[in-house]
Specification:
222 residues; alpha/beta; 10 helices; globular; binds magnesium ion
């Protein structure tokens, strides 16, 4: 695979790409929405992954209660989800991702993280585990429109100062792949979740990897 020849920056999604955090997001979405009478199916956590939390709450209310949440309900669900998330065990780093990021840096490739998450601990966590600086993190707090809108990846691209064909996205979620492709960027998908491969291919992924170890091997074998 021609990965590194012309690539000068890689934009990584965070949940399900750097951290194995999706099982906790699935659990906390199900339990925070249950309080409002919504039986959120587990796969919905994966289908909506990448959206901002507020967008997911609106979609869940519209789809299952046939109405929009009030501002207070939106805040209450989001607060409850955040509280439940804080009680979950720390998500482990996905296999070979620290090694991949180290390899990219050694090869002069810039590393960015582009996530819909807005957890206050996010910058510290990314810095501690992956040595990513705050200026290279685009979070849910930096965007007006979350994934699948192209805005998050366009911000990363602008910060990189590179041409689009020098940048590459790594995503695990269909909304994230759509966001990257709408931004005009090449996107590798890694299927670490519960959705069939077809969902990521249909979203527009240029290549698909079965796990993060396979992704790492594709980079280093080049
Ligand atoms: Mg993700």
């Amino acid at each position: 695979m021609q990965v590194l020849d012309d690539i000068k920056a890689v934009f990584f999604d965070m949940d399900g790409v750097l951290f194995d955090s999706m099982p906790s997001h699935e659990y906390t979405w199900i339990h925070s929405l249950k309080k409002y009478g919504i039986n959120f199916p587990p796969e919905e956590a994966y289908m909506n992954e990448g959206r901002t939390g507020y967008a997911t709450i609106r979609i869940a209310f519209e789809k299952y209660l046939h109405r929009l949440p009030t501002r207070d309900e939106e805040e209450a669900v989001y607060t409850l989800k955040t509280e439940l998330m804080a009680k979950r065990p720390k998500a482990p780093v996905l296999p070979m991702m620290q090694e991949l990021i180290e390899f990219l840096r050694k090869n002069g490739v810039q590393v960015f993280v582009v996530t819909g998450s807005r957890q206050p601990s996010l910058v510290d966590k990314l810095n501690a585990q992956f040595k990513v600086e705050a200026s290279n993190i685009i979070s849910g707090a930096d965007v007006k429109q979350g994934k699948p809108h192209p805005e998050p990846y366009l911000i990363a691209w602008q910060r990189s100062g590179l041409s689009k064909d020098q940048c590459l996205v790594v995503e695990n979620a269909p909304m994230g792949v759509e966001s990257a492709k709408a931004a005009g960027l090449r996107c590798l998908a890694v299927n670490t979740g519960k959705l069939p491969d077809d969902v990521l291919i249909s979203a527009g992924a240029d290549s698909l990897f079965e796990n993060t170890t396979a992704l790492y091997k594709a980079f280093i074998s080049h």
